[in-house]
Amino acid sequence: MKFILSFFLLTISYCNIFSENNIAANTYYQTIKTEQGNIGKEIYFFKNRVSQLNLNILNFQIRKSIAIMDSIPAYNNEVQLKKATVELFKYFLSVSEKQYRQLLKYVEDPDIDNKEYKEKIQALFKDISVKEKPYDEKFNAAEDAYLKKYGIKEQ
Asked: What are the two backbone dihedrals, phi and then psi, of residue 154, each rounded to the nearest 5 degrees?
């Protein structure tokens, strides 16, 4: 009887510890996804209405998201996911400070005709996409490993 009771209590405590760890792991992951979504939303707003104000808001959001990620410890020393996230966010900041600033100049330039404008925009977005690929791949690999390790289902 003592063995059964001990086994039962041990099983309950193990399940409780695992579920608490899983909640913390999921909370950390949701923080990353929230910040990624916040940046994505501001990129969307900027691309749909290119203006200095929207660029400033985008830069502010990216810096805020980087600061949030820097301020929280990596869950269970999962530094790969944190590092990949911060590097991706810093890439977004670089794009907003360089390529998106250039996009703003194209939009405001009265001497660019429509055909030239479209060509420049296509080249700009292709450049962004090509340079972003390694950051995305690194982030996706770290994210997949984290989700698998902690049994988190992506929503």
From this structure: -75, 135
